[in-house]
């Protein structure tokens, strides 16, 4: 699949933009702050229903306007598909496919992309929420139905937290909280599916990650991903929902089966019972996938804290390339669109060449760069110049 035409209205600094694109490599070039990243951010939103730069949709709506529109004409073999979303400042977002209304969360069914950006260094060095977002976005791209499961789970956590806060304020006893038991069952049902789905995906990432890391780093090291699960260990003392302890599990153990879900659900219920008093004291749900983490290891040592700057970059690149490989193998709509946002400027010359070799066989690769010299010559590319929210040249 590739994007044949991209149209924006009141998105970021673009009042309007119309851009024809072709398969192969396209480089958006221009000084920083002109709008290159905004173009690729719009495509990332269609694929993941989120931005790699902000968690607030309204931040992507041009100042002084109430809505932004992203519209992409997609082509796969001889079939074309028009996908669009309207981001609304004061109302729910709206989506269409071939001019017919669909639920916004269905958009990942029709378009797939993988974006790598400088912010991805936080996957290795940043907070657990960044890693949870990485794995959950990939889950949705592979199985769009899980967007609904994730949204329902987040809503249950919010409602359960409200009940816990109310119980704390009213000094209610555990015996008076029969309503909490009802929320617990729904929390366990949805949360267990997310935990097991994540675990299965971690297992599937193992071999593509090893291959991708070696491709970009040029050395035979052993990257590994494990799940840190709050339901198998003590809850964190942090208020931000990040688990600081708990057991680790790698994937590939069949956890997505019915038996796996039953075992996870039993452990989830036991964990909730064990932290009930502490939850009432703090007014927070202390165990569940919203408090889990991924542990990235390199040669059996935690990448966070032990990996060098170059190794951390290679790990983050490996994660994105492994994701792209998984999506291209199983997709019925072809390769995901691969987006490299200002990445080459952050890499040394060896990693630039290695990355270029690793991506050039994808059907469509979109690159942003402040200067064209950052992009290796091995990538034969169309050049699109961007200045102040406008396409000023298309060569």
UniProtKB/TrEMBL annotation:
ATP binds at residues 30-37. It is found in: Cytoplasm. InterPro entries: DNA-binding_RecF, DNA-binding_RecF_CS, P-loop_NTPase, RecF/RecN/SMC_N, RecF_2. PROSITE patterns: RECF_1, RECF_2. It holds the Pfam family SMC_N. The keyword ATP-binding applies. Residues 237-256 are annotated as: Disordered. Keywords: ATP-binding, Cytoplasm, DNA damage, DNA repair, DNA replication, DNA-binding, Nucleotide-binding, SOS response. HAMAP family: RecF. Belongs to the RecF family. The RecF protein is involved in DNA metabolism; it is required for DNA replication and normal SOS inducibility. RecF binds preferentially to single-stranded, linear DNA. It also seems to bind ATP. This is DNA replication and repair protein RecF. The gene is recF.
């Amino acid at each position: 699949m590739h994007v044949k035409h991209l149209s924006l209205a009141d998105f970021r600094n673009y009042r309007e933009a119309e851009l024809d694109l072709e398969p192969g490599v396209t480089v958006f070039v221009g000084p920083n702050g002109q709008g290159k990243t905004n173009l690729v951010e719009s495509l990332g939103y269609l694929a993941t229903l989120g931005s790699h730069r902000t968690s607030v949709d309204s931040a992507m709506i041009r100042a002084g306007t109430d809505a932004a529109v992203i519209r992409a004409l997609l082509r796969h073999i001889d079939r074309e598909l028009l996908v669009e979303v309207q981001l609304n400042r004061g109302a729910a977002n709206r989506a269409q496919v071939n001019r017919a209304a669909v639920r916004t969360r269905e958009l990942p069914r029709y378009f797939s992309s993988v974006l790598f950006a400088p912010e991805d260094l936080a996957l290795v060095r940043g907070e657990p929420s960044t890693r949870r977002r990485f794995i959950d976005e990939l889950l949705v791209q592979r199985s769009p139905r899980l967007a609904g499961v994730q949204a329902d789970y987040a809503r249950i956590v919010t409602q359960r937290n409200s009940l816990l806060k109310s119980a704390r304020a009213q000094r209610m006893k555990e015996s008076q909280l029969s309503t909490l038991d009802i929320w617990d069952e729904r929390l366990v049902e949805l949360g267990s599916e997310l935990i097991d789905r994540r675990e299965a995906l971690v297992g599937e990432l193992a071999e593509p990650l090893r291959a991708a890391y070696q491709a970009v780093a040029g050395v035979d090291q052993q990257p590994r991903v494990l799940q840190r699960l709050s339901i198998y260990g003590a809850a964190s003392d942090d208020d931000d929902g990040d688990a600081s302890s708990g057991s680790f599990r790698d994937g590939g153990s069949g956890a997505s089966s019915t038996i796996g879900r039953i075992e996870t659900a039993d452990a989830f219920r036991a964990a909730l019972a064990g932290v009930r008093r502490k939850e009432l004291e703090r007014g927070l749900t202390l165990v569940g996938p919203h408090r889990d983490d991924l542990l990235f290891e390199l040669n059996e040592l935690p990448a966070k804290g032990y990996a060098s700057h170059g190794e951390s970059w290679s790990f983050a690149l490996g994660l994105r390339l492994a994701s792209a490989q998984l999506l291209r193998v199983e997709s019925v709509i072809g390769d995901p669109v691969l987006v490299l946002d200002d990445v080459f400027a952050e890499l040394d010359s060896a990693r630039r060449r290695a990355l270029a070799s690793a991506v050039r066989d994808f059907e469509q690769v979109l690159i942003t760069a402040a200067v064209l010299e950052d992009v290796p010559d091995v990538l034969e590319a169309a050049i699109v110049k961007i200045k102040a929210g406008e396409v000023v040249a298309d060569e």
